[in-house]
Design goal:
With about 325 residues, this protein is an alpha/beta fold. Helix content is about 35%, strand content about 15%.
Length: about 325
Amino acid sequence: MAERPSTAFAMGGEVLDLAFPPQLRERLCACAELAAEPLTGPLTDAAARAVLAGTEILVTGWGCPPLTAEVLACAPHLRAVVHAAGSVKPLVTDAVWERGIVVSSAAEANAGPVVAFTLAAITFAAKDALGAAARYSGSWPAFAERPGLDGRVIGVIGASRIGRRVIAALRASDAGHGVLLADPYVGRAEAEGLGADLVSLGELCARSGIVTVHAPELPETQGLLSAELLASMPDGGTVINTARGALVDTDALTRECATGRLSAYLDVTHPEPLPPEHALLSLPNVQVTPHIAGAQGTEVRRLGAYAVSEVERFVAGEDLQGQVTRAQLARMA
């Protein structure tokens, strides 16, 4: 590989400017020969093929088309894909693995905002913020009518990168709440090390006043939070989903929330976006946000900084902190 390997951006133009401001581009250029023109559209047109022909490192982001065999045929020297975003599933195809191309993701950098969003939703849920706002008419409720976070049982579905950080933050808060974890790939000793009690998904739902979802979307996890499990949650419970909408039975959740028995904070839905007339968008005990829990606005720079660090490590011959393997991807979001 050249001392300063040929490198190109491939992502949406708006994302590029947010993720890679001038200071980060200068830092990238110190270790790599950056193509003058970023690839912000199709990767198979003549202009893109001309750039890809000499590219050794492709720095991708939201808006980058899938790296199909056709695209890779235009990039015979490509050695690494450094993704300045979270999941690489929409981007990486079998052809990438077959070529032996190294793949890195900035999912760790994207996790921070999601964790912060989730913890805020947990706090709002514990204090019944949606209900309090709906009932507020100029007079304050009595203190005995005001719920709080301390002593609550919180169920975490999935010991993912984000799920683990949520558990750690809950345990560090010293609020005296119980944390339950359901994850088929985690043993009891590991769960205890994380600070959670490992239980079945059924027990988690039955015991938790707040359930937060952090599992990947896989064929076996679609509809994971089923009508039966939602019905088993305690009255007044809350569902928080910042993972993938398909993990929750939307129709069943809508019915539970429509009765007022459950509430929900949903940053993802199924389908996504919901139709404008969908009941979840108008229920007073449901907050639906447009997939904003991850890095947004000025936060996107974190993803660019992570990606630049990965390129620096790759050029130096060091291990990549965000490397994703084919085997790992099968169980990742």
